[in-house]
Amino acid sequence: MDPTRCRSLTSSRNAPRISGTTSGDWDAWSTPSVGLRLHFDLSFAARQYLALPQQQAISQPTYARLNLRADLHSPSDRWDLGLWSNNVNDKFYLTNAVDLQDLGYDYRHRGVPRPFGMDVAYKFQVEPAPDEERTRSNRA
User: Fold this and answer.
1) Which of 10, 19, 24, 121 would suit a FRET pair with 70, their CA atoms being 20 to 30 Å apart?
2) With the C-alpha atoms ordered 40, 28, 81, 125, is the resulting torsion angle positive or negative?
C-alpha cells in the first residue's frame, strides 16, 4: 500500500477542521420543596464545506450556537417544569447544501432559528406487588 495515496482516517473533506461542544449544569437554588437547575451547552464549528468540490459558495462559515435551559424541580426529581431555548444567539447556519449550478442555483438547508418552549414532566412510581416484595426480601 502506498502511504502517499492513503487518506487520513481521522479527517473528512467535508468536516470542519475544528469543532467542539461544552456544557454545564448548576443547581442554583433549592429549598426543601423545590429547586432551580440551570443548564447551558455551546457548540462551535469552523468553516465547513458542504459539497465537493470545496467551494466558498457551498460552505458554512465559522459559527457557534448557544442553548439554555432552566428547570424548577422537586428535590427527588419526581416532577420538573422546564423553560428552554435553542440557538439563543439566533445564528444563521446551514445543515446541508447541494451544488446545483448546472441548473442555475444552489440548494441550501438552513438550521433551525431560535426555538423556545416549556415542558412539564412527572415520574409515576409503581409500588411493587406484594409477591415481588416477598421475593426480594427472601433473596437478601
Assistant:
1) 19
2) positive
